[in-house]
Design brief:
2 copies of one chain form a homodimer.
Chain A lengths: L13 H15 L5 H7 L5 H27 L4 H15 L7 H11 L4 H6 L5 H15 L3 H6 L7 H15 L11 H22 L3 H30 L15
Helix pairs in contact in A: 1-11, 3-4, 3-5, 3-7, 3-11, 7-11, 9-10
């Protein structure tokens, strides 16, 4: 049994469920990871920042595929229309380029070749395994659990609100243009998180379903945390870059 | 593109293919990982050894499921009979307990509760993601590629041959009973590897198929390497055990 996974056998009120989900984030969201703390403190080299950008691209790149899987599980046109906004946000439309393209601009602005980033071939294997674990969870779970796996977005505006000013202040090569990805996320993520949280509070109406949404949020936090563990191991501690992965040039 | 993945567009002879596959192992098999070197040098604490045993259990536990997926892909009773030996080796029969049970005995002999090990709940999330990546690769590939993913067994007798005497010599709490898992592996792995290698040399008869078997062996090496990276990060470098994972008591 997980050492600190909350276990519960009684039906919680929707608000108590929300509180429990927020507790999971307070304890396990990757904003508390040492790699994020180094980033926000201005202590990453440019090579480490590049490693972060090209690995996290793998995560950004599967988000719209993940959201398409969620849509494929719903019978309700209104739900599907609402969730479709997420795909548009990431893939863009005639008027806007979308988050995936903006992440590639972030990578390019850090000195990476976006065509190489797109191949994902220099990413850490552990990044690919964690990212695919997210696709697996969403593929193999109910609509309710798939929706709940997105609830880390409840915690992301705080992370972005800390990160963007810290990065602008502490890295002279990072500009507002570099970080253009994050600006729309500040209103998209709360809008999306609110919808998903309402959905989960409404439909997690048995103790088992409530436990399953808590568990998947823990799993999702594990997926994000494992990506930063892999970055920290390979690029903060010397000598641990695995065979075939990105080699920073500045060190 | 992978920095050091061999790429080839011409058909190789079967022996040249074997040589290329052996080169992949020489470069990427986890016997070269710092965590294995620490283990063989006698430099792991008992807590680190426990962390290794309980995480690697997750890998041992999926091997017979992986082998069942391989069998499910074959139309040939003779192939299926041959491959079935692997499931018997791991799951046991009326006369023999099998490798999974032997691994639990190894864990128990190191002071872990086998019932807790079996739940996998204290394993690192990165271990679970890597192990599931192996199931995914085998599930989603051709029989040829699924067979080729087992070829790391070509390299395992050398690893075991190094590890067993080193562990017996350098850790006073490790006995031959502790390591009973490894003894049958010394003849099972070469028998299995020879069959799989012959199969791959026979059926990888186009450049594309040859490339696909090389690629999957690289991926399999990445899967094994990522498991040791995760152990090294969490249990060799201080302060990096992720939330919810095993906490050694001896440190």
């Amino acid at each position: 049994m997980k050492q600190d996974a909350p276990m519960q056998n009684e039906l919680m009120s929707p608000d108590k469920l929300e509180e429990t989900l927020r507790d999971v984030g307070a304890e396990r969201y990757h904003i508390h990871h040492p790699f994020h703390k180094l980033m926000n403190a201005g202590d990453l080299t440019k090579g480490q920042m590049q490693a972060w950008a090209l690995n996290r691209y793998c995560y950004q790149a599967i988000i719209p595929r993940k959201d398409a899987i969620v849509i494929s599980k719903s019978d309700d046109p209104a739900f599907r229309r609402e969730w479709r906004k997420r795909i548009i946000d990431h893939d863009g439309d005639d008027d806007s380029e979308g988050g995936v393209a903006r992440w590639l601009q972030l990578a390019a602005s850090l000195g990476l070749d976006p065509d190489v980033v797109k191949t994902k071939s220099l990413a850490l294997p552990a990044t690919r395994f964690a990212v695919n674990a997210y696709l697996d969870v969403v593929t193999n779970s109910s609509l309710l659990v798939a929706v709940a796996s997105s609830l880390t977005e409840m915690f992301s505006p705080v992370a972005i609100g800390e990160r963007v000013p810290a990065m602008l202040a502490r890295y002279d090569y990072i500009t507002e243009d570099t970080l253009a990805y994050f600006t729309p996320r500040l209103h998209q993520a709360p809008r999306d998180a609110e919808f998903a949280l309402d959905y989960v509070k409404t439909w997690a109406d048995t103790p088992d379903k409530q436990q399953s949404v808590i568990n998947v949020l823990i799993t999702k936090c594990d997926i994000l945390w494992a990506q930063l563990d892999a970055l920290h191991h390979a690029y903060v501690e010397p000598g641990h870059i695995p065979p075939g992965a990105f080699q920073p040039q500045d060190e």
